[in-house]
Design a protein that fits this description.
Layout: E1 2-4, H1 5-12, H2 16-30, E2 40-43, E3 49-55, H3 56-63, H4 68-83, H5 97-123, H6 125-136, H7 138-141, H8 148-154
Antiparallel strand pairs: 1-3, 2-3
Helix pairs in contact: 1-2, 3-4, 5-6
Organism: Pseudomonas syringae pv. spinaceae
Protein name: Phage regulatory protein Rha
Pfam families: Phage_pRha (PF09669)
């Protein structure tokens, strides 16, 4: 778990350039500590520092020099991150649920068609032609909401499970 200098700046109300300055000073003061290898410096295309990513210990070391209310804000946010409350995850039960289910259904259909085509190749060329023609048929492609394998079955193609 890390916290970025951008988030520290936002939480404390400080300018990001000042937070970066404070981090550089802290790192210089700490010298050759083995923990410093865990500091990740993110650079932009020009090679300038875009953000620093600090672990919990270094974040707390940095904010020790800040006022008590600012330290409290950052520490609370660190606790949220550790508990997983602060992580932004996709809500699969929300507006994306239908699209995800539809996409998975489509992928499952494609896998079933590919399996049948492989079986057909093993069975012989006439069966391959039948499956290919059926899968490209306008009747198959123009029925939204109906899985392709159901449409293929309705056209006389047997899809082995």
């Amino acid at each position: 778990m890390t916290m970025s200098s951008l988030e520290i700046a936002e939480l404390t109300g400080k300018q990001h350039t000042n937070v970066v300055r404070d981090i550089r000073k802290m790192l210089a003061d700490l010298g050759d500590d083995s923990k410093l290898s865990h500091v990740h410096e993110e650079k932009d295309a020009r090679g300038y520092t875009k953000a620093y990513h600090l672990d919990r210990e270094l974040t707390q070391t940095l904010i020790t020099g800040y006022s008590a209310p600012l330290r409290l804000k950052v520490i609370r946010r660190l606790n949220e991150l550790e508990e997983g409350l602060g992580q932004k995850a996709l809500d699969f039960a929300g507006p994306y649920q239908g699209a995800i289910i539809e996409s998975l259904s489509g992928l499952q259909t494609e896998v079933k068609i590919l399996k049948e085509m492989i079986r057909s190749i093993i069975a012989g060329p006439s069966v391959v032609r039948q499956v290919t023609e059926l899968s490209l048929s306008p009747a198959i492609r123009t029925q939204p909401g109906v899985p392709t394998w159901v449409l293929l079955r309705s056209q006389g193609c047997s899809l082995a499970e």
